[in-house]
Automatic annotation (TrEMBL):
GO annotation, biological process: proteolysis
GO molecular function, one term: serine-type peptidase activity
InterPro entries (alphabetical): AB_hydrolase_fold, FrsA_esterase, Peptidase_S9_cat
Domain Peptidase S9 prolyl oligopeptidase catalytic span(s) in chain numbering: 173-383
Protein name, entry field: Prolyl oligopeptidase family serine peptidase
Family: Belongs to the AB hydrolase superfamily.
């Protein structure tokens, strides 16, 4: 992985995510250079300085985009709003849950992305998924109508976050756009404990993710523009636990992808207590306590003790793809092998470890994300005809 900040993995991962999701190297350099010295003080110190530096680049882009709009240059303006949203989002992700500016920063990333979508004319809509007494916020990107078989409804992928990502980051990844070009729609969801669901609605995580999956499937079955009988699920990072767990128990799902295996997240937490492996975000323990509504470490460990896939992936009876980076510094690669070896009842299971010189060797293959996203999109496009045949 490109280490812009040589001693700071977490900050460098944000820079790489920006670059691999449509950021421009000049702008990312301008955002990072002012905080290069601060990065040497560890992950936690200086994150507000980092946000200010990235936000300054976003501010300049927004000012330029507004000038473009005034001149009728909608395409150029939309591109600038996209990158401004991306930079604000990556910087917001690194902040402490206690930072008073966090909600406003996150809302700004949403507003800028929606402005981009408006100007770009994307086949995109915001949606609300009923969930108990509340609802889960999501985005639905529609399949390209030119590649959908006439007279049919397109299949749909439910995409879920990990610990600290957002539905906006799913859109930035271009994975839903790749699926759209293959005739597949994507429902991007901020599940409890992530994104807007956590930040704006206070919805916290739980281990039994089939409850979220049921809510998503119930919602898809109300729509007449996707084929819910051909719905599958993709989860990245901690979603590598969330999505397989969902597919094991929510039998309406017809395929599942773990974009980065996460077979035993409870064990990962014990490693992090012992300071083994890299953290995904600064202020790590504050962040996970926030996600799980935990009062302290003991409470958090109790709430997450069931977060493993032993005795779970055996229940998966649909096609199952697991991808993992050989040099993942957060989740050991052996967890990918464990998920694959135990998924004995999947009719089509595949394990793909990305290694050098191919690339994609880091956590969720963030170092070569577009390459791996395309691999996953192609796998899904190849699996869907098998699902069609099974439904006949």
């Amino acid at each position: 992985m490109f280490m812009y900040f040589p001693t700071n993995y977490v900050w460098s991962m944000a820079a790489v995510a920006a670059l691999n999701n449509g950021g421009l190297i000049d702008e990312v350099d301008r955002a990072c250079k002012p905080v290069l010295e601060a990065s040497r003080n560890g992950d936690d110190v200086g994150t507000e300085l980092l946000y200010a530096s990235w936000a300054a680049v976003a501010d300049r882009l927004v000012a330029s985009a507004k000038d473009d709009e005034a001149r009728g240059r909608r395409i150029g303006a939309g591109d600038k709003y996209y990158r401004a949203s991306l930079y604000v989002s990556q910087a917001e992700r690194l902040q402490s849950p206690e930072w008073e500016g966090r909600k406003a920063a996150y809302q700004r990333s949403i507003d800028l992305l929606l402005k981009h979508v408006e100007l770009a004319g994307a086949r995109f809509e915001t949606v609300e998924i009923p969930y108990g007494e509340a609802s889960l916020p999501g985005y639905l990107l529609h399949a390209d109508p030119d590649v959908v078989v006439p007279g049919t409804k397109p299949p749909v992928v439910i995409q879920w976050n990990g610990l600290d990502s957002t539905k906006e980051m799913m859109y930035y990844s271009q994975f839903p756009q790749m699926l759209a070009r293959r005739g597949i729609s994507t429902l991007m969801v901020d599940t409890p404990g992530s994104g807007e669901a956590l930040r704006m609605r206070g919805l916290t995580a739980r281990y039994d993710t089939e409850v979220w999956a049921a809510a998503c499937m119930d919602y898809l079955e109300t729509r007449d523009d996707v084929d819910a009988s051909r719905a599958g699920i993709v989860g990245w990072s901690l979603g590598g636990y969330y999505a397989p767990r969902a597919a094991a128990f929510e039998k309406r799902l017809t395929f599942v992808v773990a974009w980065g295996a996460n077979h035993d997240w409870a064990a990962v937490q014990r490693r992090r207590v012992d300071r083994e492996g890299e953290n995904p975000v600064p202020h790590y323990w504050k962040h996970v306590f926030w996600v799980w509504n935990a009062s302290d470490l003991d409470d958090f460990m109790e709430r997450t003790q069931h977060m493993h896939l032993d005795g779970v992936v055996e229940r998966i009876a649909v096609p199952f793809l697991i991808t993992h980076g050989a040099n993942d510094r957060q989740i050991p690669v052996d967890m990918a092998h464990r998920s694959y070896e135990q998924a004995v009842n999947s009719p089509k299971r595949e394990l793909k470890i990305f290694d050098d010189p191919e690339g994609g060797t880091e956590h969720i293959s963030i170092d070569h994300m577009a390459y791996v996203a395309a691999f996953i999109a192609d796998w899904i496009a190849e699996v869907v005809p098998d699902i069609d045949a099974a439904l006949l």
